[in-house]
């Protein structure tokens, strides 16, 4: 460890501040479609992985089941996701509807605008460096057990 460098301040606070600013930027763009950023992510996961059991989706997204259920409900009510029967009488499968695919495509266009805006504000080189630093840090930090994750 390099003892000549001593970080000042709280890393958790700094990361939360950055995340809030970045999330506000994405939410402002994606929100133009009527979706929150979390709803766009959920819709994207189901497009990619569905039909999928809600429990499996929660594990893939690294959120607890109650968080997933709370975030799914408005998408089901809007007709963008549907919860149908699974392989047996006890299981259910979550899938995207045609309207959900269209909504996701609309939101994906707004997401691209948001990403291009971040690239312009921070500069492409800084964004690439930030992604690399984040990936490196994620590898160095031991994973948090899934039961401790609640978003």
Task: Tell me about this structure.
The two termini are 32 Å apart. By secondary structure, the protein is mainly alpha-helical. The protein has helices at 11-30, 37-49, 54-61, 65-77, 98-122, 124-140, and strands spanning 81-85, 92-96. The model has no long low-confidence stretch (mean pLDDT 89). The protein is globular and about 60 Å long. It has one domain (13-141): Orthogonal Bundle (Arc Repressor Mutant, subunit A). The chain has a two-stranded antiparallel ribbon.
Q: What is the gist of this entry?
A:
With 151 residues, the chain is mainly alpha-helical. 64% of the residues lie in helices and 7% in strands.
Mean pLDDT: 89
The CATH top-level class label: Mainly Alpha
Widest beta sheet: strand line-up: 1-2
Q: How widely separated are the two ends?
A: 32 Å
Helix and strand string, N-terminal first? HHHHEEHH
Percent of residues in helices: 55-70%
Query: What proportion strand?
Result: 5-15%
Give me the CATH architecture, please. Orthogonal Bundle
* Poorly predicted regions: none
Q: Report the CATH topology name.
A: Arc Repressor Mutant, subunit A
Task: Return Rg in Å.
Answer: 18 Å
Structure summary, number of beta strands: 2
- From the spread of the alpha carbons, the general shape counts as globular
What's the name of the CATH homologous superfamily? Winged helix-like DNA-binding domain superfamily/Winged helix DNA-binding domain
Largest sheet: 2 strands, antiparallel
């Amino acid at each position: 460890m390099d003892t000549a460098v001593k970080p000042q301040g709280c890393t958790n606070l700094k990361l939360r501040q950055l995340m809030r600013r970045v999330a506000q930027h994405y939410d402002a763009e994606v929100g133009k479609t009527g979706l929150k950023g979390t709803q766009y992510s959920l819709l994207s996961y189901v497009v990619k992985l569905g039909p999928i059991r809600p429990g499996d989706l929660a594990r893939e997204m690294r959120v607890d089941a109650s968080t997933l259920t709370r975030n799914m409900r408005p998408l089901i009510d809007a007709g963008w996701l549907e919860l149908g029967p699974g392989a047996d009488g006890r299981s259910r499968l979550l899938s995207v509807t045609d309207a959900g695919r269209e909504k996701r495509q609309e939101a994906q266009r707004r997401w691209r605008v948001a990403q291009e805006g971040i690239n312009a504000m921070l500069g492409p080189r800084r964004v690439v460096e930030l992604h690399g630093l984040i990936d490196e840090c994620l590898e160095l930090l031991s994973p948090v057990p899934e039961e401790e994750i609640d978003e």
